Amino acid sequence: PQANNTNTSTSPRIWEQVGSDIVGTAVRNRGGFSVASSNNGKIIAMGSPHNNDVAPQAGHVRIFAWDNTANDWTQRGSDLLGEAEIDRFGWSVALSGSGGTVVCGAPLHDTDDSGHVKVFKWDETLSDYVVWGSLHEGPGYTWERWGYDVDVSDDGLTVASIAPSGWEGSMSSARVWGWNFTIEDWSPMGLNIEVDR
Question: Which SUPFAM superfamilies does the UniProt record give (predicted)?
Fold first, then answer.
C-alpha cells in the first residue's frame, strides 16, 4: 500500500519565546495589561495604564518591532502618552494587520470618566506614530468609559470601542467609526449599539 504523509505523532507542541522579555518602564505601571499583535506577529503593542510619565496613572502605550539584525524586539517610534491624571491610557490597545495603525483606549479620561479613544498611524517620514484624525472620544456622557475595549479592522480603516457603563451608568454601548476619505477624518457608522444592563 502507498504510504501517506499524515503526521501521527502525539508529541505536544511547545511554545518557544521569541526574543527577550518586554517589561514595563517602572514599578506598578502594569506593563502588558493590554497587548496586541500585527498579523505576522512582528509588531506588537503593549499598554501600561498606570504609567506615571505624564501624570499619576495617565498611562502610555509602547510599540515594538522584531529586529532581525539584533534578533530581538526594539521599540518602534515614541511612547504614546496619556494626557491627564488617571486617564488609564493603554487600558486597551489594538493593531491593524500591518501594525501601521494603533488604537488606544483611556476609559477614565476626563473628570467624569466619559472615556477617550485615540488612533495613531505610522509615518514613514517621521519614523513615528502620529495622531490620525480627530477621533478622541465617544459622545461624552458621564461615566460611559469609552475606550474600555477597542478594536480595529485589518486595513485600519474601521475602529470600534465599547463603553461598559453607558449613559449615566444605565446601559452598555458600542460604537463603530470608519475613515471618511472625503473629509479625511473619522465618521460614525450607524448609531450606537446599546444594551440595557
Answer: Galactose oxidase, central domain
Please name the helix (run of DSSP H) or strand (run of DSSP E) that holds residue 64, with its range, or none: strand 60-67
Global pTM reads 0.86
Q: Is residue 115 a contact partner of residue 167, using CB atoms and an 8 Å limit?
A: no
Nearest CA among 58, 151, 54, 36 for reference residue 108: 58
What domains lie within the chain, and their CATH numbers? 34-196 (2.130.10.130)
Based on the number of CB atoms within 10 Å of its own CB, is 3 exposed (0-12), middle (13-18) or buried (19 or more)? exposed
27-to-30, 36, 57, 73 alpha-carbon distances in Å: 8, 22, 12, 21
Check if the beta carbon of residue 89 is closer than 8 Å to that of residue 81: yes
φ, ψ at 120 (rounded to 5°): -125, 150
